[in-house]
Amino acid sequence: MAFKKQLLLQPKHIKLKNALGHNQRKELKMNKTCVIYGSSTGTCQDLASRIASKLGVDSADVFDVSKVSADQLGAYQNFILGTSTWGAGDMQDDWFDGVKTIKEAGLSGKTVAIFGCGDSESYSDTFCSGMNELFNAVKEAGAKVVGQVSTDGYTYDDSEAVVDDHFVGLALDEVNEDDKTDERIDAWVKEIQPEL
């Protein structure tokens, strides 16, 4: 009889243990992540919010690069960085000081994914090139960069953000291809989430 009782109790114990283990894995699913954007017209800000939402990043962890400090960023393991492209392929103006800020926060051993917005028709020869400046800066600072995207399906003439037929991050065109944005974000988020 005692043996029968023990068998009846055992599955409950195992079930409780598994449930605790499952909850623990859920909490550890993604390291602390922030999204930082530079936006002059609001387009990159909107994209940053959409990406954060799909990643499950709280709005309190989404920062305008012009208003963020190195102290605020110290607690984060993952950085999702977004820039628009201006001029002859430059990153958005606020990023020039912003790069210094995130380097001060320390990027060695951290994971970074980059996204950018551009205009593949009017600025076809510098499409999303601003991402390249961010890419080079964070690589130099010791970050692991994830989320490169194949150039397949894009129409443009040239981009400094292309290395080995891949953009260094997610290239988005809200001017000419806004109908592809959600699909591109969804595919990118699915790819980078396991790395975060």
TrEMBL record:
<protein>
    <recommendedName>
        <fullName>Flavodoxin</fullName>
    </recommendedName>
</protein>
<keyword id="KW-0285">Flavoprotein</keyword>
<keyword id="KW-0249">Electron transport</keyword>
<comment type="function">
    <text>Low-potential electron donor to a number of redox enzymes.</text>
</comment>
<dbReference type="GO" id="GO:0009055">
    <property type="term" value="F:electron transfer activity"/>
</dbReference>
<dbReference type="Pfam" id="PF00258">
    <property type="entry name" value="Flavodoxin_1"/>
</dbReference>
<dbReference type="GO" id="GO:0010181">
    <property type="term" value="F:FMN binding"/>
</dbReference>
<dbReference type="InterPro" id="IPR010086">
    <property type="entry name" value="Flavodoxin_lc"/>
</dbReference>
<feature type="domain" description="Flavodoxin-like">
    <location>
        <begin position="33"/>
        <end position="193"/>
    </location>
</feature>
<dbReference type="InterPro" id="IPR008254">
    <property type="entry name" value="Flavodoxin/NO_synth"/>
</dbReference>
<dbReference type="InterPro" id="IPR050619">
    <property type="entry name" value="Flavodoxin"/>
</dbReference>
<dbReference type="InterPro" id="IPR001094">
    <property type="entry name" value="Flavdoxin-like"/>
</dbReference>
<keyword id="KW-0288">FMN</keyword>
<dbReference type="InterPro" id="IPR029039">
    <property type="entry name" value="Flavoprotein-like_sf"/>
</dbReference>
<comment type="similarity">
    <text>Belongs to the flavodoxin family.</text>
</comment>
<keyword id="KW-0813">Transport</keyword>
